[in-house]
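Researcher: Sequence recovery benchmark, item below. Answer with residues only.
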């Protein structure tokens, strides 16, 4: 990015210890980050809160523990032998994500579920084949993305919209 767009102020660093003063940013976007800490997302969220101006918004996106994933878990359809697997990430329910954000001081504003196509393809193996059929795929994709109820049940990700209080 720095080579292609040298005017952009792009930096790398530890998102739990950003090298900026308190209340520095007017907005904060975190896409697919906080779910990767096995001990929980609090250090990420506390740092996001610290660096935001009062009244500023944060968009926090994580894998969504949607209805389909919850059903599969209750039915025992996920791999049972997890002792030999390295931790990769959590998927969060709406309530879990909201509780984490609010416990770190954020006000909950709204949320949006997104990418129901990937949610279905990841959880139901034959859906990948169905999405390869152009005459079905286009209609199904339209229905999934334009129906809030279907997005809520099947989406792969959830985006929380929250803000630091004034």
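Model:
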């Amino acid at each position: 990015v720095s080579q292609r767009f040298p005017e952009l102020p792009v930096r790398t660093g530890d998102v739990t210890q950003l090298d900026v003063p308190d209340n520095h940013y007017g907005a904060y976007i975190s896409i697919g980050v906080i779910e990767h800490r096995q001990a929980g997302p609090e250090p990420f969220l506390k740092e996001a809160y610290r660096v935001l101006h009062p009244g500023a918004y944060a968009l926090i996106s994580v894998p969504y523990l949607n209805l389909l994933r919850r059903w599969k878990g209750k039915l025992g359809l996920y791999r049972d032998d997890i002792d030999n697997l390295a931790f990769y990430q959590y998927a969060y329910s709406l309530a879990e994500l909201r509780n984490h954000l609010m416990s770190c001081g954020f006000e909950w504003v709204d949320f949006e579920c997104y990418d129901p196509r990937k949610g279905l393809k990841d959880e139901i193996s034959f859906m990948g084949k169905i999405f390869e059929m152009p005459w079905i795929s286009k209609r199904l994709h339209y229905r999934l993305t334009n129906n809030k109820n279907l997005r809520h049940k099947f989406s792969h990700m959830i985006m929380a919209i929250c803000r630091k209080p004034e």
